[in-house]
Design goal:
About 30% of the residues lie in helices and about 10% in strands. The protein is α+β, with helices and mostly antiparallel strands. The model has no long low-confidence stretch (mean pLDDT about 85).
Length: about 70
């Protein structure tokens, strides 16, 4: 428990993570549009040869995605 938490805190500190969610893809902090399509798009862009699923359109549930804030 404590070791896992400590490792996560160290990783967050090293990568300048100050909020959640923070997306780090191949060692690069990215800020996709927080929709299914936006997240899929940023992940698929990391492939040299993207899988077939990257060409499919996902359901639009953007109204269900939390935008953050208190």
């Amino acid at each position: 428990g404590k070791t896992l938490l400590s490792g996560n805190v160290d990783y967050a500190s090293q990568n300048n993570v100050g909020q959640s969610p923070t997306y780090i893809l191949n060692g690069i902090k990215v800020q996709p549009t927080r929709t299914q399509e936006g997240i899929k798009s940023i992940i698929c862009s990391a492939f040299n040869d993207a899988p077939e699923i990257c060409g499919e359109t996902l359901d639009d549930n953007s109204k269900d995605v939390p935008t953050g804030g208190c």
